[in-house]
Amino acid sequence: MIDRADRARMFPLSPVFFSSLRFTLITCASLLCLLSPAQAERWVSLGEDGKLKYKVDDQWNRIPDFSRAGYGGGGVVLPVLPVVETLSPMEGRADDTKRIQQAIDKVSARSMGGGGFRGAILLKRGQYRVKDALKIEASGVVLRGEGQGKDGTVILATGKERRTLIRVSGKLRVKEVDGSRRRIDHDRLPWGVDTFALETTRGYSPGDTVMVYRPSTKKWITDIGMDSIKARENTKQWEPGDYDLHFERVVTAVKGNYISLDTPVVNAVSDKYGGGYVYKYEESGRVTQAGIENLRLVSEYEKGQETKDEDHAWTAVNIDHAANCWVRNVSVVHFCHGVWLGRSSKFVTVQDCAYLKPVSLIVGGRRYPYQMSGQLSLVQRCYSEHARHAQATSSKARGPNVFLDCLAENTHADTGPHHRWAVGTLWDNLKGGEFNAEDRGNWGSGHGWAGALQVFWNCETSSICVQKPPTSQNFAIGCTGKIDKGRLSDRPQGHYESHGEHVKPRSLYLTQLEERRGPHAVRMVTTKAQREGTIYEELKKKYR
Question: Where do the domains of the chain lie, and which CATH numbers do they carry?
Answer without folding.
Answer: 4-62+175-284 (no CATH), 83-171+287-543 (2.160.20.10)
